[in-house]
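Title: Request for sanity check on Permease prediction

Description:
We are preparing a figure and want to confirm that the structure record we downloaded matches what your pipeline produces today. Could someone re-run it with the sequence below and paste the raw structure tokens into this thread? We only need the token string, no images.
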Amino acid sequence: MDMTHYMELLATNQPWNLLIFMAVPVILAETIAVSELYILFTRNLKGTVRIINKFAGILAGFYFLIIFLHLFFKAVIPITMAGQWRTIIDVIAVGFYLLGVVPLLGISLLELDLIGKHKSEESKLKLHATFVAVFLVVAHIAMIFGMLSPSLLGGHSGMPGM
């Protein structure tokens, strides 16, 4: 199989893996991103859109934390121990996908006032928007590398020593 573990995960067990590992996180992240733009333009921190943004933010972070823990222990550690990474392309795809937990969990913690508690509303908006931007960047890097063929760098078998 000449694909990254990222793409293999999404292609296996159709449609469930695609829904669990891609659709739900992307729908939540895009809900956050779109509502974030509305909030930034209107500065309406009390309306329905803000409530949707807050709910999606809390849910996305903890949902992705569960995904992170599941994949870290069920995929990353076993793949690493067996030396089965499919070139650095594979490592980047999976690594950046899992890195999405940092900004998404940051959004959840911010929404629950577990971080940034003493910041002004303006500062919280900036931090929230920064987390959204960071997530969009790492998710797109994961998708781009995930769609590449590991054979572009000369192989598809395991990477001994990784």
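Thanks, this matches our download. The CA atoms of residues 150 and 156 lie 6 Å apart.
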